[in-house]
Amino acid sequence: MAEEQSSHRRKMEREIVDSSVMQSKRGQIFGFILAILVIVIITYCAFLGESLVASILSGVALVGLATLFVTGKLQKSKKSDEKAITKED
């Protein structure tokens, strides 16, 4: 009975980790596609002579990417802090 529970728990943990990895990969792929799309739109606007629109889009994209990186790092550090606290208990 205990062996079955242990096996089931390991299987569930493995599925959770696999799901998390897939979600992370999917997010990276969508982010890459979105970044390429924004670069194409900015290039097209610049090509048409709409330098103001291209500049604004570039600035918004850079601020958005910087925000994502900062919040991502904050979330990772918060998770690592929570793990350290639970290990101490």
What does this structure look like?
By secondary structure, the chain is mainly alpha-helical. The mean pLDDT is 83. α1 runs antiparallel to α2. The chain has 2 helices and no strands. The longest helix is centred in the first third of the chain and has 46 residues. Helix content is 94%, strand content 0%.
Entry keywords:
single chain; 89 residues; mainly alpha; 2 helices
Q: State the separation between the terminal residues, measured CA to CA.
A: 28 Å
Q: What are the segments in which pLDDT stays under 50 over at least 5 consecutive residues?
A: none
Structural class: mainly alpha
Structurally, the number of domains stands at 1
Number of helical segments with 4 or more residues: 2
Give me the Rg, rounded: 21 Å
Classify the beta-strand content into a percent band.
Answer: under 5%
| Proportion of residues in helical segments | over 70%
From the spread of the alpha carbons, the general shape counts as elongated
Largest sheet: none
Order of helices and strands: HH
Mean pLDDT metric: 83
How many E-type strands? 0
